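Hey L., structure's done. Input below.
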Amino acid sequence: MYKIIGADGKEYGPVTADQLRQWIAEGRANAQTKVLPDGATEWMALSEVAEFASSFPASPPPPVPELPPQNAAAVEQVSGPAIGLMAAAVLGFLGQVTGILVRMAGFSMWRSGYGMMPRGMPNWAMFMSGTLGFALGLVALGMSVLVFAAGLQMKQLRNYGLAMAGSIAAMVPCVSPCCWIGLPIGIWALVVLSKPEIKGAFH
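Output:
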C-alpha cells in the first residue's frame, strides 16, 4: 500500500500498487510524484520505488555536441603544429633540466676544488658555466612551459594570443625549447595561425 502527494499538493491513499500503475498509465502520476510506501518514514519519488521503476522510460543521454564543419577543419589544421609545439617543449624542458643539473654539479666541484676548469678557459666562459648559464637555463624552462601551454591551447582552439606567443617563443635562439626543432615548428605554427579561417575558429 502507498500514500501519494497529488498534483494539488494533497495527500491521497493508501492505494494499492495496481491502482498506482493505473494512475501512471492515465498520466495522473509521474516519475516525480511523491509516494510513501507502507512502513516507510520518508517520501520518495515514484521512479525511485523499485516496483515502479520499469513504468518510466529511461532518460535519453544528452546529445554529444558536434563541431561545426569549419571548426572541424580548423582542428585538423592546427593539430600537427600544436602537437609539434608540445613535443618540442617537453624535449626542451628535459634537456634544460639535465643541463642545469650537470652545470650545477660541475660548478660546485670546481668551486670546492674537486674539479678543474679547462686551461685557458676565458672568464666569460666560466661565468656562462656558472651564474649566467644557470639563469638562462631557468628562463629556458619557463619558455618550455609557455610553449607547451600554447600548443595545448592551440590544439583546443582556445586563447589565440597565447598560441601566437608560444609559437614565437619556440623560435627564439638560445632559450627556445629544443632550438633546432622549435624553430621550424614555430614557423609552421605561425603560418597556420595566420590564416583568417583559423583565427576566426578560436574562442
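The two ends are 56 Å apart (CA to CA). The helical segments are 17-26, 69-112, 123-129, 131-155, 160-169, 179-193, 196-201.

-- N.
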